[in-house]
């Protein structure tokens, strides 16, 4: 069983190294980053009656929400044992959130979210209640949402083949402008 799982993982990771694999990853990342932006702003609206929550990037994308599902999709081969899937659904989003929070705080001396008042938290970057939420959402994503996204991608792949490099350049430009903005804010604020 372990051998067949490793073989499935190896095949998925080799696929990533092709242009088609990179295009698919960027599509999934873009889709899930946008859904994450909608999810987070909707949560902000429900809890604070304000839809737009300050975003790290300029555009309507939350990269953490794009990175975690992509990692889950490519690290969970078909036929993986359910315990393995549950563990990854809990661990990957938690690690991505903690790494993102720590990195953003170290680079920009700022915390975009703070769980320090929440039980079972670590440095205000992660907490058990939200990790359980992310784990549940990740399981729903992997089992029920992502198969539909794969079908969607299959139907628009010819169009995506023409525009995916421009989307990649958009993300790169947004990241560069964002880093510049936050670095200037840090300099002016110091």
TrEMBL record:
Keywords recorded for this protein, A-Z: Membrane, Transmembrane, Transmembrane helix
Keyword Coiled coil: no
Keyword Transmembrane tagged: yes
Pfam families membership: ABC_trans_CmpB
Matching InterPro entries: CmpB_TMEM229 (IPR010540)
TM region positions: 12-35, 56-76, 82-104, 125-146, 158-177
Name of this chain's protein: Putative ABC transporter type IV
Naturally occurring in which organism (per UniProt): Neobacillus bataviensis
Classification lineage: Bacteria, Bacillati, Bacillota, Bacilli, Bacillales
């Amino acid at each position: 069983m372990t051998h067949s799982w490793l073989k499935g993982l190896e095949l998925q990771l080799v696929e990533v190294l092709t242009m088609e694999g990179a295009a698919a990853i960027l599509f999934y990342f873009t889709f899930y980053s946008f859904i994450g932006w909608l999810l987070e702003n909707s949560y902000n609206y429900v809890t604070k009656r304000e839809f737009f929550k300050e975003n790290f990037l300029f555009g309507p994308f939350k990269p953490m929400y794009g990175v975690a599902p992509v990692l889950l999709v490519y690290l969970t081969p078909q036929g993986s044992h359910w315990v393995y899937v549950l563990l990854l659904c809990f661990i990957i989003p938690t690690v991505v959130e903690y790494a993102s929070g720590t990195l953003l705080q170290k680079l920009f001396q700022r915390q975009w979210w703070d769980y320090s008042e929440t039980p079972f938290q670590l440095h205000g970057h992660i907490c058990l209640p939200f990790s359980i939420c992310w784990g549940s959402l990740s399981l729903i994503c992997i089992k029920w949402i992502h198969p539909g996204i794969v079908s969607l991608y299959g139907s628009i792949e010819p169009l995506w083949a023409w525009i995916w490099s421009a989307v990649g350049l958009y993300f790169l430009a947004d990241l560069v402008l964002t880093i510049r903005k936050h670095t200037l804010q840090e300099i002016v604020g110091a």
